[in-house]
Amino acid sequence: MTAEPRTASHATSPILQITDAVKYYPLRGGLFRQRRNVRSVDGISLSVAPGESLGLVGESGCGKSTLARLILGMSSLTSGHIDIDGIDVSSVRGESRKRLRRTVQLVFQDPFSALDPRMTIGRSLYAPLSQNRIGTRPERLQRIIRALDDVGLDPSFINRFPSQCSGGQLQRVVIARALLLEPQVLVCDEPTSALDSSMRSQILNLLAALKKRYNLTLVVISHDLRVVHYLCERVAVMYLGRIVEIAESEELFKKPRHPYTRSLINASMLEEKGLVGCASARGEPPSPVAPPPGCSFHPRCPIARPECARALPDLIAISDGHQVRCPFHSAVEEGDSLANRTDMAEMR
Ligand SMILES: Nc1ncnc2c1ncn2[C@@H]1O[C@H](COP(=O)(O)OP(=O)(O)OP(=O)(O)O)[C@@H](O)[C@H]1O
């Protein structure tokens, strides 16, 4: 691995600004037909600088993909505001939706389902260019060849069908398709979870190199902490629709301050030792339909006190760029940290 993936860039104004984003899905039915909601995203505020990479981590169901869909304008906000490069994502229609597509693109999790098996790679790549009326036919072909070259594939892939490609090659095609409209922001939802470990490193290296070459802003969603540790300058930890901790990647993995972040890191290290299936924190995550009162992590928290059940703690700044939603954060032990592990180096 040669590229230096993580470099900080905070001086400029944000390209992505999320302000108090809420997404509730109404639940119908139930015994007394009462109105209830799944609180998928429950008041998230974030800003991401141009060229920065932000990781979103948390257990399954914490709202990572919902937040990604909101950023991409694929789902509407219940309340709050999302702005990408001056585009108000919540009110995009017609031409501004096209502008949004040219600004932010999604790298899908599963390359096998992301591409139509009946279409050649060339036709799959041609479609977004013709839909957005970009260039003449020869210019579109040139763009496709350049995008394939960017991801390390030669022009012969234009005539191949997905079934004639490996999983790693297909993920490269998916990344090429995301790059075709020259976006500034790439949202990568579990970009390597469908790949084996050797392919995973290659795709991570490719994303890091592309970020550097095109000054891309990355929002990386992953349950694999090593992926965000490798690719991201900052990491936000989500629990039940809220951010519980956010910090520069190195700081977060060396000095996690929220008990939930600590337990995620512990679980990640146990999984690497082959103890798969171990819970990241004791018990199951509570239902997002009826989250516990106060701090929603308190029923599973090893350092919970009676007052944790009473009021939702604020996200408080404990050092420059490091915020944590726990007033008892100083009781969280540092212990062994993911950032100190030698096997983290193997990702590079
Ligand atoms: N369309 C929907 N209707 C109702 N509930 C939904 C919908 N989409 C997501 N949810 C619920 O919102 C919560 C957050 O889901 P989301 O997929 O965003 O979590 P996640 O962190 O991305 O999980 P995973 O890692 O498993 O994809 C879950 O409880 C999920 O069941």
Automatic annotation (TrEMBL):
SMART domains membership: AAA
Domain of life: Bacteria
The keyword Nucleotide-binding belongs to this UniProt entry's keyword annotation: yes
PROSITE patterns: ABC_TRANSPORTER_1, ABC_TRANSPORTER_2
Residues annotated as transmembrane: none
Keyword Ribonucleoprotein set for record: no
Keyword annotations from UniProtKB, A to Z: ATP-binding, Nucleotide-binding, Transport
InterPro entries in alphabetical order: AAA+_ATPase, ABC_transp_ATP-bind, ABC_transporter-like_ATP-bd, ABC_transporter-like_CS, Oligopep_ABC_C, P-loop_NTPase
CDD domains: ABC_NikE_OppD_transporters
GO-annotated molecular function: ATP binding
Pfam (any one): oligo_HPY
Domain ABC transporter: 16-265
NCBIfam families in UniProt: oligo_HPY
Family statement: Belongs to the ABC transporter superfamily.
Name of protein: ABC transporter ATP-binding protein
Source organism: Litchfieldella qijiaojingensis
The organism's taxonomic lineage, starting at the top: Bacteria, Pseudomonadati, Pseudomonadota, Gammaproteobacteria, Oceanospirillales
